[in-house]
Records
---
Amino acid sequence: MAKELTGKQRSAIDAYFETQNKTEAWNQVYNVAGNSNRETCAKRAQELFNLPMVKAEVNRIQGELTMNKDFSRAIIVKRLSSILDDYERYKVMAEGIDPSDPDQREHVKILASLAKASDALNAIKQICKLMGLDAPEKVDVNHTVTINITKPTETD
């Protein structure tokens, strides 16, 4: 009969996926004080996450997350794109309103609050991060250097 994960093991696995840090997950679940020995905590966390059942569960969850990753990205990109679309739509609407007209002044304020350039910029940044476009470009540099070492001469 297969043994099941304990509540603490399950909580540690959940905490690991939240923090992406096994030691931090272990510290959270076992209520470790901030002044505890870091090496001991890391060792205990490693022991926990090396248990075959814990390791198998972490691998299972990682597999599910990998399979759902592309789907999740598509949803996130769609939502961020809608933020950009909203920004453009509100901006166009605001251009058609005369701010000097007292009757339309309130509409300008509302549209200005809706059409925040910072929201659009943040949406673009997030899309770039999700698609890996924010990563620095790798450039291979090959260079040859010649070093001449000369022995100092003795002076009389």
Note: The mean pLDDT is 78.
---
Amino acid sequence: MPRSPFREPYSGPVFSDEGNWSGSLQDGLLDGDYEIDGGMTKGSYAQGRMSGTWQAVDEDGVLRWSGAFVDGLEEGLHEWFTEAGGPAATSGSFSRGSRCGEWLQLGSPETHPPCPNGAEDGPVETYHQNGQVKWTGSYAGGAIDGVWDSYHDNGQLQHRRSYASGVREGMSETYRADGSIEERGSYAGGLRDGVWESYHDNGRLRDQLSYVNGAWNGPSERYDPDGQLVSAGVIGPDGERCGEWVVGAETVTYPPCPNG
């Protein structure tokens, strides 16, 4: 199914055997139109990769998502709807599978590196209305590439992100307008990977979560603003708690983790 914007991390498009095909195989790869669950998700594949416009509708036939793919990667405007006939709750553009430009995420604005829009190579710098630098970075081969920094309108660093040929790769840091760290972690192949940390406004650690290939998986710890442990344990590959967990002052036992 196409990735969803309603949670982090995002899971990439995967093939499902439950589809109905009016296409063919070319060189062993799917090619043609695809429809799943009576039309709830439909689009086309070209040489085994999602291509052209894809849409998802609910059981009443109401459009819930629409977006385009090029060579298996999201490209251009994507929109998600929560109300029939209403405005998009989440909308924004992709470039080679990475979010770019200004987004509306469930009603809240988000900022991402400016979309290439045909630019091939070289540095980029954009500005807030008050003249402060908003984004700095560079394109390579028509894709977002290298380290990109964004700034609050007061000049403080807001985001530091790393890309490789348009795909999130390596470190990611987010800072508040007062300069304090809000979140840090890393990406591998466009997906969250390894340990991610987030912090309370007072600078104390809030979460220390583990990700594997974009999925929440591994040791997990949460703390309150005073630094007291709220919960600690392991998240299994299915995204559920497993093994022994400390929750407040109690120890709670969940099904054993797959690795024992």
Note: The radius of gyration is 21 Å.
---
Amino acid sequence: MPRVRSRRLGAPAAGGGADGTGPVTALSVDLDQVGTDADTAEKDLLTFVLPANTLATDGDAVRIRGYVLCAGNANVKEAKMHFGATELISSTAIAYNGQAFSFDAMVYRTGVGTQFAYGKFLRSLGAVLGKRTTPTDDETGTITIRLTGQNGTASANDIVSDGLIVDKIAAPA
């Protein structure tokens, strides 16, 4: 798929805002279009490596949004969003014919090495799924955030990413 545009921003500035003064920091805006391969393996479509210590204080959070498009065919398709080793939300494997997906997740630090997460999935025909998870990633190291796609039939570009956006929300003072 052609590259559309991509902008990756640096680690959060002191104070949480992009300029160091506000509570929200845009960490990554990646609008690349990457498709699944002609196989049935789960493929990373877009990734972002959360810098070490981004979630340094209890209550710090990241909001993760992901977007995918499905080919207009009867093949089974599944897209997922991951935070480290944890699957935040899945579209479930269904024959989505020409639909667009939207993922939205919040991951909050609740203690050292513990998080609370809630993910939401919405598809263009209106179905909404939600999932609560409790990741246990080490915030002192980097954490990989992934938007993935998996074909049910070996057909290239059955699922194509349309964006992955990651923001940090600082804990209230």
Note: The longest strand covers residues 100-111.
